[in-house]
Amino acid sequence: MTNSIQPDLLALVRDPIDQDALIGHVRAAEDGAVVTFDGCVRNHSQGRRTLYLDYEAYESMALEKIREIAAQIHEKFPVHLVAMAHRLGRLEIGETSVFIAVSSAHRPAAFDACRFAIDTLKRTVPIWKKEYFEDGAVWADGEIPPAPLETRAAKPAS
């Protein structure tokens, strides 16, 4: 059920994501459901305290992949509109890194489409996350961070 009057809203942004604007964009009189996903920066990862994150992307390809995900959503689910925005740059603890809103006449389609959107985005879109800790930084999902300094110091030398 694609809307030919108003297109989906798909973006990579460097400023905080305006969640209300994305929700407002997808909400319409014919919809009975708007489902959202708010991916936010947590304060820990792999047992270490996270200070902040930095997101980088192959921007033109990332936006194209996000467009492909939206098109797949319209093919697979009876939804009205999709809005997806992903932040790039430095993000502090608690900030939204990715926000997705999906509208449809009925809630099951909106829930299923929103879940499909975030799962597919995480697997296919060329966006990389660097996690910063007190004792260094690592790229997420590509390497296992070393143990925190206090854990390494407690181990006896071999």
Describe this structure as you would to a colleague.
By secondary structure, the protein is of the alpha+beta class. The chain has one domain: Aldehyde Oxidoreductase, domain 3 (Alpha-Beta Complex). The chain is about 30% helix and about 35% strand. The protein contains 4 helices and 9 strands, in the order E-H-E-E-E-H-E-E-E-H-E-E-H. Strands 3, 4, 6, 8 and 9 form a 5-stranded antiparallel beta sheet that branches. Strands 1-5-7-2 form a 4-stranded mixed beta sheet, with helices on both faces. Strand 8 and strand 9 form a beta hairpin. The longest helix has 18 residues. It starts with 8 loop residues before the first strand and ends with a helix. About 5% of the residues have low confidence.
- The number of domains is 1
Continuous helix count: 4
Q: Structural class from helices and strands?
A: alpha+beta
Overall form: elongated
> How does the major sheet shape up?
5 strands, antiparallel
Radius of gyration: 18 Å
Give the number of DSSP strands: 9
